Amino acid sequence: MTLFSPSLIGGDGWSALGKKITVGFLGLGNMGRPLAENVLKAGFPLIAWNRTPEKGKDLVDQGATWAQSPSEVAEACDVLVSILADAAAVREVLLGDEGVAAAKGNAPVIVEMSTIAPHESVAIAEALQGRGFVMLDAPISGSTKMAADAAVTILVGGDAGALETVRPVLEAMGKAIYHMGENGMGCSMKLVNNVILAAVLAGFAEAFVMGQKAGLAGDRILDVVLHGSAACPLLEFKGKVIAAHDFTPTFRLRMMRKDLTLALNAAGGLNVPMPLTSVLNELHQAGIAQGLGDQDFSSIVRVFEGLAAIP
Ligand SMILES: NC(=O)c1ccc[n+]([C@@H]2O[C@H](COP(=O)([O-])OP(=O)(O)OC[C@H]3O[C@@H](n4cnc5c(N)ncnc54)[C@H](OP(=O)(O)O)[C@@H]3O)[C@@H](O)[C@H]2O)c1
User: Fold this and answer.
1) pTM here?
2) CATH architecture classification, 188-307
3) Which terminus of the chain is more exposed, N or C, with fewer CB under 10 A?
């Protein structure tokens, strides 16, 4: 079993003993793919697996090793990163028959970066702990562009010592790392973050549609919003996407709907009413019903256009 001491790890992927930290990577979707590439670029040997192997071909061309299963990845790495669609996928990949927990003779520190419910994350961390693994929840705040630029924010829940052990790997992916508390707290912070993102973007989309129906040009609305009192970094990025109506997905609308539902479920358990989030959740559900689930979440503007009978 590989046991790490934080003092043995250097920031460039080398330990003080001259051994390179091998990073395992599970999940090469929109977010995982650029993160994995940055880990490789930072000098860490990388062993990767994805359900759809084609998505890993160019990483292998760049020097990554391909594995046939998540357990094979776990057997060969020191730090293991997973970033998958939802809790069902995380359970399957970490705890399933060929999952990480089935690995023999090695127990990497697991950095679980998917956005899933806090209670699910805690349950998975506990199941892994029973099999000799330490898991941190470390969901990400940021876009695919920020992932490509190694500029995401990473929200960590779990053991502080384990965080120090994996910090050099996280630093290869993100520019800000926050330790939020015990297991599950990273996921709780991520839900707070995404409720705010969904609310800001839907607020912009609703007002944008109203302005256009009143006869204002889209680019003029955007110009004023981006330079006036409503300016914010999200609109700098996604407001332009809405004005251009290019909904090539970087964060799918169905993913945002997943996060809103997770937030409502968490709030229910805490006896916290979230009336605005309930409406946002229904609007995103309407978007999925209209076939927008696999488009970017900025396509929420289409829902407002539909309500306003704008073709
Ligand atoms: N995109 C963003 O801007 C963004 C930002 C912050 C956080 N996130 C979060 O990051 C996570 C990944 O998002 P994404 O945008 O990268 O999603 P994505 O492009 O849809 O990728 C999903 C990944 O999960 C894998 N997967 C799904 N179901 C699986 C299963 N049953 N077994 C094994 N693998 C499975 C997919 O494998 P295949 O390739 O085989 O389908 C793929 O690697 C989500 O939790 C999301 O909420 C995304």
Assistant:
1) 0.92
2) Orthogonal Bundle (1.10)
3) C
CA of 294 to the centre of ligand 1 (A): 12
Nearest to 20 by CA among 39, 45, 49, 40: 45
Out of 25, 26, 28, 31, mutate this one to test ligand 1's pocket (max ligand atoms within 8 Å of CB): namely 31
**Is 6-183 in CATH node 3.40.50.720?**
yes
Ligand 1 pocket test: pick from 100, 141, 255 the residue with the most ligand atoms within 8 Å of its Cβ: 255
User: pLDDT tens digit string along 9-68?
Assistant: 444 544 545 568 999 999 999 999 999 999 999 999 999 999 999 999 999 999 999 999
Atom of ligand 1 nearest to the CA of 114: 45
Parts of the chain belonging to CATH 3.40.50.720: 6-183
Work out whether strand 23-26 and strand 46-49 pair parallel, antiparallel, or are unpaired. parallel
Q: How far is CA 8 from CA 22, 56, 74, 109, 147, in A?
A: 13, 30, 20, 14, 27
